[in-house]
Task: inverse folding
């Protein structure tokens, strides 16, 4: 019987149920490079895994062996691949497998193979699995709200299995917890553009702009909503330039005279797409110049002035702003 | 351009005006509790600025020591790992070609060669990682995998000998790549494995560098990667996911290699990547996440690639002063000249392939590094400062950030990023930089790389000459 506890690991050579199997040592060659000083239990487990893998033994004991091997190195994709073959051949109970994989995933939440296995399993379980999968990713995200794999899995579940009903609310919750959580903003975009329950980007745009502008005003130094605001107009950038809420928030932030980099950057984009700045706008930009304002407030040269200001207030990106300036129409 | 380090030890630093710089998300103007993102950012800034403070307060000779590239220590760390890894490395037992690549590429960047015996051992070991039907696995007897195949091929290219390069069976490898191709246009990492932009890059990089890139491999690929570009401008692992530095590099490099980079929204991509460099001077992987030394390559390298791309476009437009309408329809398939007579052709399309010859597709790699370039789109000296002062480890090797442990992965990508920085002002990819492009002593200079494949440039030339 393969032991699940590691207080007393029994070598395979002493397990009677494995006595018919000849372990296969790794073909490392006489002078391997990057050799790993395997512990005995690791080496032996892998020797027995190789035996069943090469002989393609799709048995119960092979399945248990993969569980042991996975526990030692969850990154070994060959073992996972073989495990799936065994599960299929045995017509194994997939709900048991779900328990297994969720337990492994909780301890290794940043491992590609584990999440791929979850996806494979969820696909087999079908739409009934949606709720559990969403619940599971929610738990992972409650520990690490930006876990990339968890988010990708969540998106896949929504598209393949459904469950969109509460997703926008979930985004709201996460953003209330942490308005800087860019993964939550990304998920928001995903929901408003793809949810079959909402009207799509165009229908959602106005309310989303309001939400985003609110987020900007409470934390103007937060980059996420600024990018989101642009994203809301990806399909129609000229619309961005004509949106009063957008130019309004720009003006407000610039008038406050701190955390202006994103506002200036947005203004540059607005100008590129036909925004006609008022004199008030030009004045507010003028006030940010560190040199004496002998430069005119002519809107045409406004873009150039903005780039110059940005070279000063955002010096880390001075090369980038210089390049932007050289590429103005 | 002054090569002295940047003092950003306080938020109202010499770098910024009275307005606080972006990414100082921690310095909230309202007196509210900080969010988790802000808290984490604050902690990192504290550690990093402490180091920069120590640096700026230190006497000149100490400063020189601090920004010195401790070559011997790194080589010691790398060589030791190459010869023997401890039992805790069993978690990388399915990644051994990666370990080969991270270590040997790092050594090559440090101009350290490898003796014939070790070289032969490496070639032998990698052959044992080969699957009988093509492709390399993470170790002997393992399923072939695109990432480990990429690592194995890049390792052999880095070894550079005829023996190393000829040990690759290109036909077998090509059939493996084709088997990994999915109907959606992208690639799977392994049989029935996950599909993402990383798989696409590893497949195409290998195909391109070995001149086995053909139409079948690229069909539908550009459209898949385009779907992975997010509203932020960066590229995600899969359509819908968050823009991420690693995937952005993979997506961008792939699009260039398959000659479809004009499909991307380049201006928003450039903007996103440029904004990933933060007050710590290093790059973050995603918006509002933490700085990490490895992004010196993924993000810095992306901007380096873009820099060269823009130069190519600029060069081509400049060298064709006549009206586009008068250019011939078929163009010249052998040269890198811009033939843009088709109205939907953008300036970024480099070649006009009428044929499906793999050699011509792979020629993109060669053309890419010949052209003159503009200056870097990021702050090169600041990034070098982060790499040398915050990522470099006294005992050898590099790490993500202060407080983290060194590892071979970070050693590889911090050094690769450092090389990118040092050559970011150079007219061609391998012309020696001026001293003020290199932070610290000129002896810090690394070998130049080919940014699309991330192998030392000299090694790339060798492959092209041989194959």
Result:
């Amino acid at each position: 019987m393969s032991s699940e506890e590691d207080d007393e690991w029994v070598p395979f050579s002493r397990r009677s149920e494995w006595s018919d199997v000849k372990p296969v040592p790794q073909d490392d060659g006489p002078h391997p490079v990057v050799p790993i000083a395997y512990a005995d239990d690791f080496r032996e487990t892998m020797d027995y895994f190789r035996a069943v893998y090469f002989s393609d033994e799709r048995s119960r004991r092979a399945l248990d062996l993969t569980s042991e091997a996975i526990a030692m190195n969850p990154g070994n994709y060959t073992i996972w691949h073989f495990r799936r073959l065994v599960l299929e051949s045995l017509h194994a109970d997939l709900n048991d497998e779900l328990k297994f994989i969720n337990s492994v995933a909780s301890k290794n939440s940043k491992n590609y193979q584990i999440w791929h296995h979850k996806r494979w399993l969820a696909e087999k379980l079908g739409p009934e699995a949606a709720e559990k999968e969403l619940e599971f990713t929610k738990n992972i995200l409650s520990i690490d709200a930006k876990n990339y794999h968890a988010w990708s899995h969540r998106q896949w579940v929504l598209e393949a299995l459904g469950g969109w009903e509460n997703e926008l609310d979930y985004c709201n919750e996460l953003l209330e917890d942490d308005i800087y959580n860019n993964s939550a903003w990304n998920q928001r975009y995903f929901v408003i553009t793809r949810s079959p329950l909402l009207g799509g980007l165009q229908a959602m745009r106005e309310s989303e702009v309001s939400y985003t502008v609110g987020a900007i005003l409470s934390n103007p130094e937060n980059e996420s909503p600024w990018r989101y605001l642009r994203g809301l107009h990806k399909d129609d950038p000229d619309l961005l330039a004509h949106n009063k809420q957008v130019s309004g928030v720009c003006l407000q932030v610039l008038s406050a005279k701190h955390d202006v980099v994103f506002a200036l950057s947005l203004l540059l984009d607005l100008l590129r797409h036909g925004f006609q700045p008022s004199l008030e706008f030009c004045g507010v930009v003028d006030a940010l110049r560190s040199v004496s304002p002998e430069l005119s407030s002519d809107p045409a040269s406004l873009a150039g002035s903005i780039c110059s200001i940005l070279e000063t207030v955002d010096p880390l990106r001075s090369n980038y702003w210089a390049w932007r300036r050289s590429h103005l129409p | 351009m002054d090569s002295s380090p940047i003092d950003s030890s306080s938020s109202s630093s010499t770098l910024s005006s009275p307005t606080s710089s972006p990414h100082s998300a921690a310095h909230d103007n309202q007196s509210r509790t900080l969010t988790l993102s802000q808290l984490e950012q604050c902690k990192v800034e504290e550690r990093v600025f402490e180091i920069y403070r120590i640096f700026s307060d230190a006497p000149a000779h100490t400063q020189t020591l601090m920004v010195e590239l401790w070559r011997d220590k790194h080589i010691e760390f790398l060589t030791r790992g190459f010869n023997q890894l401890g039992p805790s490395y069993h978690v990388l037992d399915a990644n051994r070609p990666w370990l080969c690549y991270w270590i040997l590429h790092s050594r090559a960047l440090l101009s350290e060669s490898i003796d014939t015996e070790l070289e032969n051992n490496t070639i032998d070991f990698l052959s044992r990682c080969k699957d009988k039907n093509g492709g390399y696995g993470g170790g002997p007897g393992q399923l072939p995998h695109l990432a480990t195949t990429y690592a194995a091929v890049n390792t052999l290219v880095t070894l550079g000998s005829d023996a190393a390069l000829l040990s690759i069976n290109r036909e077998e490898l090509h059939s493996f790549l084709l088997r990994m191709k999915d109907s959606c246009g992208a690639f799977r990492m392994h049989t029935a494995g996950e599909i993402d932009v990383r798989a696409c890059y590893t497949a195409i990089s290998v195909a391109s560098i070995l001149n086995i890139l053909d139409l079948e491999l690229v069909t539908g690929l550009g459209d898949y990667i385009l779907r992975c570009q997010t509203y932020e401008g960066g590229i995600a692992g899969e359509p819908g996911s968050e823009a991420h530095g690693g995937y952005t590099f993979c997506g961008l490099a792939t699009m260039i290699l398959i000659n479809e980079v004009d499909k991307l929204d380049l201006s928003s991509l450039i903007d996103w990547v440029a904004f990933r460099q933060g007050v710590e001077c290093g790059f973050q992987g995603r918006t509002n996440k933490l700085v990490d030394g490895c992004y010196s390559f993924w993000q810095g390298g992306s901007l380096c690639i873009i820099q060269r791309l823009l130069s190519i476009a600029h060069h081509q437009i400049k060298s064709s002063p006549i009206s586009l309408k008068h250019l011939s329809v078929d163009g010249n398939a052998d040269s890198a000249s811009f033939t843009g007579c088709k109205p939907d052709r953008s300036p970024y399309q480099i070649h006009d392939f009428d044929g499906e010859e793999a050699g011509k597709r792979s020629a993109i790699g060669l053309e890419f590094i010949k052209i003159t370039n503009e200056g870097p789109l990021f702050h090169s000296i600041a990034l070098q400062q982060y790499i040398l002062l915050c990522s470099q480890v006294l005992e050898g090797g590099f790490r993500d950030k202060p407080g983290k442990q060194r590892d071979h992965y970070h050693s590889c990508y911090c050094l690769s990023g450092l090389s990118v920085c040092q050559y970011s002002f150079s007219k061609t990819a391998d012309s020696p930089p001026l001293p003020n492009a290199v932070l610290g002593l000129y002896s810090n200079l690394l070998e130049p790389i080919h940014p699309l494949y991330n192998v030392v440039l000299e090694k790339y030339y060798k492959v092209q000459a041989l194959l």
